[in-house]
Amino acid sequence: MAKLTIDGVAIEVPDGTRLFDACTQVRGEALPHFCYHPDLSIAGVCRLCQVEIEGAPKLTIACNTVVRDGMVVHTRSERVRRAARQILEMHLINHPVDCPICDQAGECGLQDQYMIHGLYASEVAKSDKVLKLKAQPIGPHVILDKERCVLCSRCVRFCQEITKTGELGIFQRGDRAEIGVAPDRQLDNNYSLNTVDICPVGALTSRDFRFQKRVWLLRSVPSICPGCATGCNIRIDHEGGQVWRLRPRRNDAVNGPWMCDTGRLEYKRLHAGDRLSRPLVRRDGELREVEWREAWPELEQRLTAGKGKLALANPHQTVEELWLFKRLAGLFCGEDLTAGCLAGSDAAEGDQFLLDADRSPNRAALARLGLAARAPAQAAAQAVAGAPVLVYGGDPALADPALAAALGAAELIYFGTRLNATASRARIVVPLAMWAEKAGLFLNRQGRLQALRAAIARPETAREDWRFLAELLTRLGAGPQPATLALLRAEVGAAFGLPAAQDLDALPAEGLVLAPVTGAPAGGGR
Question: Are 181 and 250 in contact (CB under 8 A)?
């Protein structure tokens, strides 16, 4: 352990700690910086994090300095402040003053540093600024503005060290140096939008989010990405009842500070034109919108008219919802014919980092709840013509032509969020909430239980899934059901063998890893 003094405060930190991190611990905020990033190698190119160390003849950059026993460090001296202003001026020499139209405004490191260390009269004439290419598409998701770049090299190091794809580099020299893509390359790896996150200025912006919404208008809700079995921790940025973007939220046990581009675009499904907002009942061969007071009797009648032969759920539903669905399916057709989901559903190509080949967020919960998968051919054989079939979420009609025909011939009841191929074949359709419109739990490929939270309201009269399922079970004579999500989670916790003291409403920040169960599916397709 090293003992040192920073700004008059004596601290003790482990040997090998970078001075930058030790200073952050004392100050409660990071030193001014552009190039430093805790998950990337040290570049030491911006020079903003200089500090004064007693006995040293010159100021020292903290990011590339390891603590030593007995160090006495000053981070707020006049000498340090003056150096920060001078270095900031060098970064601003060729920077355009286009903050009013820059997407990074409100989240810009350069703005922040200027407000703290700047507010000076610049000595650089506007005519002396070097002009560079603006608004250059460098990949399917990212726009580059070379004038705004401060050459921190974060994006270059990200492509070299994290994705190991090496698309970006620094070209030319001096004040003509600029970030760019290698010849005949594009920034098109699965994680390209992370370069936008780590860019401290507006040099790299998202083609999807560009000019869509001012960031200071957005509200942020912590949640879990529904895009695959990894379960990346995210923030849902929303405003006015609409989700505008998804960003990664650090969880070192799952995704670190990153997420894939595929997951970032999952929010678009929330606002698709085929969202279900009202109950639909088939009248004279057509699905027609009805009020809930008409839908409930129709639904109860169809669920009790005859013994069901098939009940299909979907691994995009939460743990709590699958728990209640299992109870409903047992009442509907007996657990021996209940299927958790279609085998092979949501399969795609994964990679060796975060993007999983299993594009469902909660498949691990199916085995833990005893909901076995069915092959499409097996499900088609169980969907007897004229008999009730219950489908909860997903679009199994797309999996196999025989299954699609069988579902069309059966008395299909569909609970879901979209008017897809399966819903179009149903006799009654129940509109429910999507992942950003409700609270729940997902169990990822690690067996880690994580919480998602509601960010926006459900459309029109769509119902929150667990409340709808609980009410339906009560109407069908299954007895009283949990009246709150906390009570429902207590039931789930008991079924999972968790101690009674474990509060699933207050999971640890990194989630809760459950003990493995026999027969659980292998995790992922990394």
Answer: no
User: Domains of the chain (ranges plus CATH)?
Assistant: 2-92 (3.10.20.740), 127-212 (3.30.70.20), 280-513 (3.40.50.740)
* 412-427 tens-digit pLDDT: 999 999 999 999 999 9
Residues of the chain with pLDDT under 70: 118-127, 335-336, 518-526
Tell how many helices (H) and how many strands (E) occur in the chain. Answer: 13, 23
Phi, psi of 191 (to 5 degrees): -130, 25
How are beta strands 2-6 and 72-74 bridged, if at all? parallel
Q: What is the C-alpha separation between 409 and 382, in angstroms, rounded? A: 12
Query: Rounded to two decimals, what is the model's pTM?
Result: 0.92
Residue 159, helix vs strand vs coil: helix
Beta carbons within 8 Å of 301's beta carbon, 6+ residues apart: none
Residue count (the chain):
526
The per-residue pLDDT for range 111-163, each reduced to its tens digit, is: 888 887 766 666 666 667 788 889 999 999 999 999 999 999 999 999 999 99
Q: Do the bridges between strand 440-443 and strand 428-431 make them parallel or antiparallel, or are there none, so unpaired? A: unpaired
What is the amino acid identity at position 398?
Answer: L
